[in-house]
Amino acid sequence: MTDQKRDMRVATLLDRLNRHGLSRRKFMEGAMAAGMTAAAASTLWSDAARAEGPKRGGHFRIGMQDGNTTDSLDPGTTESTFMIDLNHGVRSYLTEITEDNVVGPDAAESWEASDDASVWTFKLFEGVEFHNGKTFTAADARDSLNFHRAEDSKSAAKPLLESVEEIIADDDRTLTVKLTSGSADFPYVLTDYHMVMMPSDGEGNVDFASGIGTGGYAIESFDPGVHATFKRHENFFKPDHAWFDSAEFIAIPDSNTRMTAVTTDEVDAITNADLKTAHMLSRDPNVTVLDIPSGGHATMAMHVDVPPFDNNDVRLALKLAIDREEILQKILRGHGTIGNDHPIGPTLPYWSELPQREYDPDKAKHHLKKAGMENLKVSFSTSEVPFPGATDAGILYQEQAKAAGIDVNVVRESNDGYWSNVWLVKPFCMVGWGQRPTPDVMFTLGYAADAPWNETHFKDERFNSLLLEARKELNDERRVELYREMMLIVRDEGGTIVPFFNNWVYAHRANVQHGEQVSGNWPLDGHRALERWWFA
User: Fold this and answer.
1) 501 with 295: CB under 8 angstroms?
2) Which residues are bridge partners to 169 per DSSP?
3) Is 255 exposed, middle or buried (0-12, 13-18, 19+ CB in 10 A)?
4) pTM (2 decimals)?
5) What is the 3-state secondary structure (H, E, C) of 406-473?
6) What local confidence, expressed as pLDDT, does residue 67 receive?
């Protein structure tokens, strides 16, 4: 078939699609009969469907890799992917990370700062309603943020609001936040997945237990860490979002089962595709695989106040005993970038390139000799919860560390309750972190001295001083310098091994559509697939 004839047949096919509608199967059959490859035909279908624009309707099902029976509607305790996605679908935030990976409006339509960034004023959208019909006001926003600031609060977001001095509801649509010192990133801080907007009782308390929010979907049923169903909030304040009539979350911790579920049309999308077989999944014309660079990363967290990890020579030896390139290629199949033992990835603002730490068993032995621990034995806890392949990564590290004389005992922990029973509990374990929007947020959550999620118990005076200085610094060049020094401190003295920064690799059925750009801060379009996606 000549190129001209093929192009004419494809043009005719597109005309039929636009004028009369055409099932994806019929379109694919026609395009491939015209001489197109399955991949090219699938791309053409997606482009044509996207050009038609979003359509309302359908029941959207997501297979989640990570849910716990201990999950709760208390946003301060949110840890799992299941609950992060639920929060973004059911509740709103004041701000959000857009598809372009910058901060944008959510329930707040605009904001402005004082010259020193110590006072922020937010203007709320008009007509925002909770699922029960109650109007969302600045008082609800105030009490929702104060929920994390309470003296007895155990919220993981509490450190992010530590510099907040006072929150004032000036009127129903105006919220003023006064800080003890400037925070140039404050609108980014408010995108943290814990800081959802909840209904106030008018006395300073909020209702989180009902799950009532202002998001695009209302909860119909909720079985923690197992299953949840949702229906569209008809009075959602974003008329060009929340296209599905209803939705469903299904916890599917086994990666092979998730992959099968999306290929057999049991679900419409899955989180965390199995990287060993993702290339095979992409060959299915009925499935689209997304591979999105991000600042998400793995950490191998050591408690620096627990022997033998309280000795920095031991920590350095363990950092030198890992071959990051081999792990990137064998575990992630190249879907990421090499880590360097600090949590700030190249997709984040203010990232600085540091000398790369290499695999060096001989140098590791040198540090073990300095520590008097030439025959080091350590236990390392992991499961498939942090990321697909986390167990294999632990076993590969076990083999790599032998060259340095280190005996790593890989402990395979239960998937259920991993975040409650292993992370922050076991002194050496695998962790998966999503991208935070700025270095300040990442360092404040995971590395500040008193942060609830300080997974290594790392406490460094200089680091904490730099954190405060960088937060209020409005000169970008100076902030780069400050964050660079903090990255070096964590890299050389901290208890964190960072083997890689991962791409988000996930999949959806080919009839699921979204904008050309998807957010890279979290999987499933920054956990906003419910709100942003639609069926062709």
Assistant:
1) yes
2) 175
3) buried
4) 0.79
5) CEEEEEECCCCCHHHHCCCCCCEEEEEECCCCCHHHHHHHHCCCCCCCCCCCCCCHHHHHHHHHHHHC
6) 87
